[in-house]
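Give me the fold.
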Amino acid sequence: MAPSLICPPETAFIMKKTITLGLMSGTSLDGVDAVAVDFAGTSPVFLGHHYQAFPKEVRAELLSLCSPGDNEIDRAGRMSVTLAKLYAQAIHELLNEADIPRMEVAAGVHGQTIRHRPEEGWTLQLNNPAWIAELAGVDVIADFRSRDVAAGGQGAPLVPAFHSQVFTSDTARSIVNIGGIANITFLPPKKSYGKVTGFDCGPGNILLDAWCQKNLGRAFDANGAWADTGTVRPELLEKLLADPYFTKEPPKSTGREYF
């Protein structure tokens, strides 16, 4: 049995708030998406969205920190503060655009993953929630992955749970998210005894973005226009799909460290 958690009064106060800001900067390293949702009713209500692009130098440094390098601790520390300022700016913009009072919200901030080693019992996201709280003037919830890894998981417990709450229906469904890394959630029908399953199914945009940057000098292939001019090379596709990750049984997760 897992040990119980004793919530301090301020945590209990946060949990009573129904409007949640979710901030996510994913494996693509292009910027942060901030979304406001009201969970007061039986179904979540979308209130607004703001996208805050990463400056080129921030993206370059984050990409560099995804691989072993020199002076990583100082560089990661500085970048955590830089990210906090960008996250806080995104919160300011979203609250202003959606006309939401600060006292009515709590913000969930995942941080930026720069190294993911669940097989070794750890995962590292650059984040500085204290800075975000001070700069944005809102309650901040963070560190979503560590407990799941400690419990033997892959460190990504929230997406399948959220999909289950929002998308479960009388028929089975599969939800596919193609970000930098692609993941899939299987949702059994409401009245079945099936199990919700979610895992990373392989690379999404990171390889496409890298290929586009190398050949066209662009960060990504807008609307897939360049890819649409090509044709499938069966021998190359077969070689790519022969990677052992694709036949590995879930639970499993992956990232830039592998692909």
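The first strand starts at residue 19 and ends at 24.
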